[in-house]
């Protein structure tokens, strides 16, 4: 059985007091009895404070990005060794905003994923097609490419620390959610492609958690999670208010 995950991506939103308030609310309401696994990805500046509030809670604090190297000369970046000072062992890779606006390619994602997994970090790897790619019937070509390049050369034993997030770019922050059928079709395809990555990958594909992202809200999450291949949500807007975040978890 794949455990469901509700992950909140706070992006470059929220002030420190706002982030701390949501973290405190999550700490109070999420317990070891909570059925789903809960993750939050605050701004790098807020990681320390949020991780401190959530220490001792099952809620996982993760970083939105990191650089794939050990402590070294790399101005402006942060690395897993520094994150681990705060107990942070989960990192998002390849979010579409980074792909679109910061030039992050699937090859760069591959370098990060490999380095992070080898550093004992859990990775949430984001993939998804743009509206133009969907309209030109290229959704599956794009997803296949992002999977093949992003996951190239990763050993089967490392897949236990990997989560995939399928986030159609046209659904992110637009209020236009994919229908449960559209999402399920993409998730089933992604699972099948992971199963074809190497000999014996079918077992890995069966157990990997695949989250849906893109305008997930408390009122549409249940119909998405009802689909057999959708194992949770990566949520932007609706995770940035305590009430709606708790609504998603419920
Ligand atoms: P959204 O963002 O829920 O605001 O659409 C999702 C994401 O970008 O992870």
UniProtKB/TrEMBL annotation:
Pfam families: TIM. It is an enzyme of class 5 (isomerase). Coiled coil: none annotated. GO terms for cellular component: cytosol. GO terms for molecular function: triose-phosphate isomerase activity. Pathway: Carbohydrate degradation; glycolysis; D-glyceraldehyde 3-phosphate from glycerone phosphate: step 1/1; Carbohydrate biosynthesis; gluconeogenesis. It is found in: Cytoplasm. Substrate binds at residues 9-11, 173, 215, 236-237. It catalyses: D-glyceraldehyde 3-phosphate = dihydroxyacetone phosphate. Keywords: Cytoplasm, Gluconeogenesis, Glycolysis, Isomerase. Its EC number is 5.3.1.1. GO terms for biological process: gluconeogenesis; glyceraldehyde-3-phosphate biosynthetic process; glycerol catabolic process; glycolytic process. The active site is at residues 95, 167. The keyword Cytoplasm applies. It comes from the Bacteria. CDD domains: TIM (cd00311). Belongs to the triosephosphate isomerase family. Involved in the gluconeogenesis. Catalyzes stereospecifically the conversion of dihydroxyacetone phosphate (DHAP) to D-glyceraldehyde-3-phosphate (G3P). NCBIfam families: tim. PANTHER family: TRIOSEPHOSPHATE ISOMERASE (PTHR21139:SF42). Homodimer. This is Triosephosphate isomerase. It comes from Leptospira ognonensis. The lineage of its organism: Bacteria, Pseudomonadati, Spirochaetota, Spirochaetia, Leptospirales. The gene is tpiA.
């Amino acid at each position: 059985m794949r455990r469901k995950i509700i992950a909140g991506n706070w992006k470059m939103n929220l002030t420190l007091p706002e982030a701390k308030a949501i973290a405190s609310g999550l700490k109070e309401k999420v317990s070891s009895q909570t059925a789903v696994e809960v993750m939050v990805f605050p701004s790098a500046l807020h990681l320390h404070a949020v991780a401190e509030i959530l220490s001792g809670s099952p809620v996982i604090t993760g970083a939105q990005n990191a650089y794939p190297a050990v402590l070294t000369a790399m101005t402006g970046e942060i690395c897993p060794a520094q994150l681990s000072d705060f107990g942070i062992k989960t990192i998002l890779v390849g979010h579409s905003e980074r792909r679109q606006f910061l030039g992050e390619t699937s090859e760069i994602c591959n370098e990060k994923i490999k380095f992070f997994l080898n550093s004992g970090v859990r990775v949430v790897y984001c993939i998804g097609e743009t509206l133009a790619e969907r309209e030109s019937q290229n959704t599956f070509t794009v997803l296949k490419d992002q999977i093949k390049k992003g996951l190239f050369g990763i050993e089967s034993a490392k897949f236990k620390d990997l989560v995939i997030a399928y986030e159609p770019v046209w659904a992110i922050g637009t209020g236009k959610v994919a229908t449960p059928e559209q999402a399920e079709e993409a998730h089933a395809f992604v699972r099948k492609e992971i199963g074809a990555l190497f000999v014996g990958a079918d077992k890995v594909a069966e157990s990997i958690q695949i989250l849906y992202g893109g305008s997930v809200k408390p009122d549409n999450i249940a119909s998405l999670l009802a689909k057999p291949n959708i194992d949770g949500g990566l949520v932007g807007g609706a995770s940035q208010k305590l009430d709606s975040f708790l609504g998603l978890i419920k």
